[in-house]
């Protein structure tokens, strides 16, 4: 089925949402719900289909070409197709790298447009933001150097927004620029305040991957970003004051991130002790899976 469905997608246009939506979902599902041996063959089939990859290129570009919907909370058929496209490409990036699969057609994306889709997220549904962040995480993990993906660092219009010529820090972080890093971090923090579970998980995971990327590129920049004072205000905002308020998965994962990068001005011994007390008093068997996993990572980091 994978072969004819992928060929069918390649014959479609981005506006053929009724046909493309279930087809792309089937391709995504086929990649994730199979054995490793079959997964490697599935990746090879999809990456050898030039018309499918050209279609995916057009679908992703619709993210910033189409007009925003009038109702931001409503997931239209066009937005649902964009979600499927971003998730499928993120998976292809991951598995192409894992299996070192030959690529017959590359995808070219402007990094500024991808970042702006998150930073200037006006009227974008939560699921679309989550899908774009999944793609961004996959690209960050590979240092934007996948043989499947060609990243354009700056386009002419957005390049004019930079207040100064590229610095040594910008050169070290290429294709990212420092102003983009801080804009993205602030935008992710604002998204966390919404306290939407799916969005919170994606945002924290994106922050983790971003700081890891920065640490490889320039340790000083990574530590500078991780120790910004506004992170502490974010934690105070997330802590709702209720019983066991520290035992929220997004709070625990943020605490773990700050511990990992030694941000002592963000998380102190007092907060660590409070988390340990709440964990000792909690019925661990009744904790949600996401909380248990986040607590495990936090304790290992401590």
Automatic annotation (TrEMBL):
GO biological process entries: meiosis I
Matches recorded under InterPro entries: Immune_Signaling-Apoptosis_Reg
Coiled-coil annotated spans: none
Name of the protein described by the UniProt record: MEI1 protein
Organism this protein belongs to: Caloenas nicobarica (Nicobar pigeon)
Upper lineage: Eukaryota, Metazoa, Chordata, Craniata, Vertebrata
